[in-house]
């Protein structure tokens, strides 16, 4: 009986996702400001001022990375993704960045 209850509960939880047919992860950010980033000049504080808090943070080859992104998947339409990954040097300045979008 408990196994059937778990199956029923899972089905009820998944039903809205299947009916909606889409999922969104991440957060909006000011994509029109990407061209203001200057490698070796723009600081972490300036990046945070332009884009807000990063959606994710991490490390790449020992250097701090911040990711801004919004990812929308749909079973019925084209997916839409936009992301910006910024790598900072040891002094807290932009070492590199990658901006990608499907728009």
From TrEMBL:
Residues 32-96 form the Outer membrane protein assembly factor BamE domain. The keyword Signal applies. GO terms for cellular component: outer membrane. The keyword Membrane applies. InterPro entries: BamE-like, BamE_dom. Keywords: Membrane, Signal. Transmembrane segments: none annotated. Residues 1-20 form the signal peptide. It comes from the Bacteria. This is SmpA/OmlA family protein. It comes from Tamilnaduibacter salinus.
């Amino acid at each position: 009986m408990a196994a059937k209850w778990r199956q029923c509960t899972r089905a009820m939880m998944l039903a809205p996702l299947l009916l909606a047919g889409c999922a969104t992860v991440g957060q909006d950010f000011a994509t029109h400001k990407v061209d203001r980033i200057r490698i070796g000049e723009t600081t972490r504080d300036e990046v945070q001022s332009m884009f807000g808090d990063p959606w994710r943070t991490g490390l790449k080859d020992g250097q701090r990375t911040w990711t801004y992104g919004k990812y929308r998947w749909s079973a019925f339409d084209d997916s839409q993704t936009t992301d910006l990954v910024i790598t900072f040097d040891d002094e807290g300045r932009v070492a590199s960045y990658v901006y990608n979008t499907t728009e």
